[in-house]
């Protein structure tokens, strides 16, 4: 596994030396002379807090020192995260549609099918273009290699850094204004930018530009689809 120092991102051979069960010594980075990865001895809650605070070292620990493509079923993990990503995004779209349209207390079966179709179409098309713009921008603007494994790691980083979308599930229990969704979208954008910066080791400005373009295209496509489908109903 290709370990990295969470402080400077320098490659290291091992994170710790184990003398006996429960007795380890953390290794220091030869580049910055700091402890290579202090999260090994930290509780998971500390890592979660640092991820929310957008600390680059927390993202390096997660992507380089935590995920091991050789030790786990990488393809299966990708499929699960992608499915969860699409389900949560579909739920986000359903909330926005419910707030923008007049709710019917007794909807017909046809209206329910039509509503589900709009949500699924919006989620599929929007995220397909989101992935396409993201990967195209990653290759063209960030000058990354065309290795498939590298793009898989990039997509995994984007999926993992979209964890803030889980806060949308709180809207199932508590009622929030729809503006909260856009606040969460801004946090997801910033988290995606930092994740892309950590994985690609490119300038933060370029990473922000790639992520912003992907999110804007996704928003515009969603808006265009809703307008087009609304016009079809009026015809």
Kindly list the characteristics that best describe this protein.
235 residues, two-stranded antiparallel sheet, 4 strands, mainly alpha, elongated
| Count of discrete alpha- or pi-helical segments spanning 4 or more residues | 7
Q: Calculate Rg over CA atoms.
A: 21 Å
Secondary structure class reads mainly alpha
Task: Write down the overall mean pLDDT.
Answer: 85
Q: Beta-sheet strand percentage?
A: 5-15%
**Residue share in helices?**
55-70%
Overall form: elongated
Distance between the termini: 58 Å
Order of helices and strands: EEEEHHHHHHH
Show unreliable segments: none
Main sheet? 2 strands, antiparallel
The order of strands across the largest sheet is 1-2
Question: Total strand count, please?
Answer: 4
Structure overview:
- Helices cover 62% and strands 6% of the residues.
- The mean pLDDT is 85.
- The strands form two sheets. A two-stranded antiparallel ribbon has the order 1-2.
- Helix 6 crosses helix 7.
- It is elongated.
- The chain has seven helices and four strands.
- It has helices at residues 44-52, 56-66, 74-100, 109-140, 148-160, 179-200, 204-234, and strands at 3-4, 11-12, 16-20, 23-26.
- A hairpin with a 6-residue loop joins strand 1 and strand 2.
- By secondary structure, it is mainly alpha-helical.
Question: How do the helices and strands line up, and which of them pair or pack?
Answer:
Layout: E1 3-4, E2 11-12, E3 16-20, E4 23-26, H1 44-52, H2 56-66, H3 74-100, H4 109-140, H5 148-160, H6 179-200, H7 204-234
Antiparallel strand pairs: 1-2, 3-4
Helix pairs in contact: 1-2, 2-6, 3-4, 3-5, 4-7, 5-6, 6-7
């Amino acid at each position: 596994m290709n370990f990295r120092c969470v402080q400077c991102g320098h490659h290291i051979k091992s994170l710790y030396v184990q003398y006996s069960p429960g007795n380890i010594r953390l290794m220091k980075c030869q580049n910055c002379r700091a402890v290579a990865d202090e999260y090994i001895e930290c509780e998971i809650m500390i890592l979660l807090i640092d991820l929310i605070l957008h600390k680059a070292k927390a993202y390096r620990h997660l992507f380089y020192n935590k995920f091991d493509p050789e030790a786990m079923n990488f393809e299966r993990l990708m499929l699960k995260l992608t499915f969860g990503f699409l389900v949560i995004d579909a739920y986000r779209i359903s909330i926005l549609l419910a707030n923008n349209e007049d709710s019917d207390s007794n909807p017909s079966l046809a209206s329910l099918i039509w509503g589900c179709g709009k949500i699924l179409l919006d989620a599929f098309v929007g995220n397909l273009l989101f992935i396409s713009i993201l990967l195209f921008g990653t290759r063209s603007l960030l000058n990354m290699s065309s290795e498939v494994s590298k793009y898989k790691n990039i997509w995994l980083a984007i999926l993992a850094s979209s964890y803030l979308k889980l806060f949308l599930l709180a809207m199932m229990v508590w009622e929030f204004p729809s503006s909260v969704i856009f606040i969460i979208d801004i946090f997801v954008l910033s988290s995606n930018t930092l994740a892309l910066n950590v994985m690609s080791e490119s300038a933060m400005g370029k990473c922000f530009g790639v992520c912003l373009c992907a999110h804007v295209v996704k928003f515009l496509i969603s808006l265009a689809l809703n307008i087009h489908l609304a016009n079809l109903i009026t015809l």
